[in-house]
Amino acid sequence: MRELCRSFFFILLITSCYSGNNNSDSQKDQDSLEIQILDVSSIGDFTPLISPKELFKEIDYIRLESPDTLQLTVAYKILELRDKLIVLDGNKKALFAYDLKGKFIGQVGKKGGGPGEYRQVSDFDIDYDKRQIVLYARADKAIFWFDEELKFVERKRIDAWGNQLSILESGSIAIYSYMDSKDDPFNIRIYDKSGNLIGKNMSFPQEDGQLAVPDFSGFIRGNYFTYPYSSVIYRINEDQSTEFPVFEVEFPNRMAEEKRFDHMGFLNGRFAEHILGKFEMGKSGSEALFYYSKKTKTSYAFTLGVSLANGQVFGHRQLKHGEKGKDDIYVMLFFRGPYSLPTYSASSGYFYVARNLESVSFFYKDILERREELKTSDRKLYDLLDQIEDLEDPIIMKFKLVDSYEKGNSN
Fold this sequence. Notes:
By secondary structure, the chain is mainly beta. It is built from 8 helices and 25 strands. It has a 5-stranded mixed beta sheet with strand order 1-18-17-16-15, with no helix packed on it. The model is unreliable at about 1-30 (pLDDT under 50).
């Protein structure tokens, strides 16, 4: 069903567009939290539409150079660990390490059945306190730890099947399972640093035939998660199963939260209502990047939403996206939803996003034609694109979000 949904969304022409729980927090403090509304439904006063790039600062570009024998195909997730970039190849299901200039350092572990080897990487995160790379291998049902020099440290088998891994602020490890368990009403399992099960989160009803889980909605990042088809972002609570909603994304024709378990109703309704897609939280939980769906005259699309630290929120009515007459070369290269969203490295405060290969393929001729515009607007990106032989070579954009935006400012 997940692959069917993903294929169907691409056929429909998808256009682009840690304040986490701390064990020392009291129940009273948690109960007093108010939901922050991220409202992208208002038109705003931006004329003409602005490029998402206008909300970025300290922008740089990195070309990843890999040996032919270990060529990177799709940079699905990118995190920084001191002087290294750790990159998950979404096709090869393997981890690669580069220096901050894009030079290849090595592979994190390797595939196999021997000591310290895994069948394939499902997801990974960084334990910044221990300076370790933590990866989850679904086929092995195991968590692996590697040090900052990429050396194997430990392997722990766990009784969980999952798709995504997240390191919580406490150092605990959360595994997210896309609702595939038929015997357990919880979808997130939490393990301590030794791999022992200590808690569960994200309950869902056991109703046969009602759950059709996609891979374009429902995610876990840091101390946060969303249900599939939900537009509310919850905070993981390690002490008990009670859920704490912290963000609610508002956008036109949004599907009601109480309908989040009516998966077949959403699919059979030909996507008349809209949902939240992938999300990423920035510094101190005050920034957010996310995709949300919207319908155009010609397609069903996932578009970019941006929430700045001062509370300003931008969506498709303020930002250029990959639509006729509203195209933007940065969107065509880096920000087409629902999968290509930046990941945030708390150690440096930078977001990292790789070039979206599906988007580059679709907009190939448009990008070639628009590239000349970059001579004056972004010479660094122009020179980089001019140097590479293949427009699909892996390139990463790194940036921080501006603290606030005023129409006409430059970054």
